[in-house]
Amino acid sequence: MLDINPILLLATFVVFVSLIAVLNSWLYNPLLSFMQKRDDDIKKDLEKVGSNDDEINELNTKAESIIMNAKLEATALREKVIADAKELADSKLESKRAELAAEYLEFEQSLAKSKDELTSDLMSQVPVFKEAVKAKFSQI
Q1: Three-state DSSP class for 4?
Q2: Does residue 1 carry a pLDDT above 70?
Q3: What distance in Å separates the CA atoms of residue 14 and residue 22, rounded to the nearest whole number?
Q4: What pLDDT is recorded for position 32?
Q5: What is the Cα–Cα distance from 15 to 9, expressed in whole angstroms?
Q6: How far is CA 91 from CA 60, 78, 87, 88, 129, in A?
Q7: What is the pLDDT of residues 26-48, one digit of tens each?
Q8: Where are the alpha helices (DSSP H) in the chain?
Q9: How far apart are the C-alpha atoms of 74 and 58, rounded to whole Å?
Q10: Rounded to whole angstroms, how far apart are CA atoms 4 and 12?
């Protein structure tokens, strides 16, 4: 027969309950609080990551706007430099055209003067040529 001792059964029950009470206070509660703290930390980290995403998106937006403004400034500066260079080239071209026109006018004047001198020289030698031609015809 199975012999059950009530005192031993009661002692086992008391030891079991006291063991549960001790383990609850020394092991289960600290373990549960640690797990709760870890879950809270994970939630906080996820919230920080979410806020970091917002911050990163905000910074990306700022960076894109800065890059866009820089491109616009570069384009405006490039157009201004090109316009200034064209204006400078046009002014140099105009001054060179004026200089060449003045040189051409001076050349035309010297050419006309040379033509007049040559004409007067030839006209002064016309009697000599006439005499030479008459001499040649007389020899024929």
Answers
A1: coil
A2: no
A3: 12
A4: 95
A5: 10
A6: 46, 20, 6, 5, 54
A7: 999 999 999 999 999 999 998 88
A8: 6-23, 29-139
A9: 24
A10: 12
Torsion sign over Cα 56, 62, 68, 74: negative
- Residue 70 CA from chain centroid, whole number: 6
Token pair 């879950």 in the structure block, residue: 39
**How many angstroms separate the CA atoms of 55 and 69, rounded?**
21
Residues in the chain: 140
Which amino acid would we find at residue 63? Answer: A
Place of tokens 């004026």: 98
Distance CA 98, CA 121 (A): 34
Place of tokens 């009661």: 10
- Taking the C-alpha atoms of residue 123 and residue 129, their distance in angstroms, rounded to an integer, is 10
Could you tell me the two tokens for 14? 């008391």
Chain CA centroid to CA 85, Å? 21
Q: Which two tokens stand for residue 32?
A: 């549960």
Q: Both tokens of residue 140?
A: 């024929």
Enter the tokens of residue 100.
């060449």
Residue 120 amino acid letter: S
